[in-house]
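Quarterly update, task 2.4: phosphoric acid mono(formamide)ester-bound model.
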Amino acid sequence: MSEDHLYALRHRHLIGLEDYSGAEIRLILDTADSFKEVIRRPIRKVPALRGKNVVNLFFESSTRTRLSFELAEKQLSADTLNFASTGSSVSKGESLGDTARNIEAMQVDCVVVRHAAAGAPLFLSQCLSNAVVINAGDGAHEHPTQGLLDLLTMRDALGGLEGLKVVLVGDIAHSRVARSNIWGLRKMGARVAVCGPPTLIPVDIEDMGVEVCYRVEDALRDADVVYALRIQLERQHEAFFPSLREYTRLFGIDPERLELAKPDAVVMHPGPINRGVELDSRVADSGRSVILDQVTNGVAVRMAVLYLLNGGGERDAA
Ligand code: CP
């Protein structure tokens, strides 16, 4: 690790990459690189969080995020509890704050939370006295560990982040993944362009330091990374474009459109993919796709975040 690195994060929680500096993001990515070596061992376990209780509080569906947090916790030797809102006292009307305070009363050290409401992790961090809160995706606000695993995957594939042109295509307005990527990439010196139907591009998005393109052919020219976002039908309460077929015709990433990007450009997607809508299967399954590398890196990044926020960095510095 270089000398200008911080040895611990300034933050107690991870609510969003908006709050984190470039140096802190680099520390998490470098720590994740170290954990990749642990994941490759025959026995994938270190005692870093032995004796810590971590609860995964998922109020929304998840495959990748929930499983990779659970794996990361187990590989760090934490004791893990899984909470799903169905089957819990939430179905009897218990509030989020009361649920969390009851969980903390059981001596939980860290809460990983996914919630449909933007701001739920911040609210929890204000309710809880001692536990660390990690945002696993809140509404259309942020998905910081997804942003971090995406940055790590780009850095692995292309050798660095500074100066890269990253194009985010799709539903920018409803995408917490887009927001975390934009914050993280801008802090690491990458250029970001967003592209999609005008109804799915927030009017003030340029204030985040991104370029806006409404023609995917313009956006993809000279791109290093083509990042297709999922069309989130569950977050759209009105029709933002005439039909899925129309969306695919104008914005879908197919082999012909991919040719407009740089020859070594990589293709990314946060999952789950709507195959044949935002991404053609010939692209999703091609040698240019690093989509499964994103998933693999998710475990290492979540190990790094759990480790650093639960005192790992401070112990090393001592
Ligand atoms: N990328 C992502 O958040 O996937 P899941 O919804 O499966 O966790």
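Highlight for this quarter: The mean pLDDT is 92.
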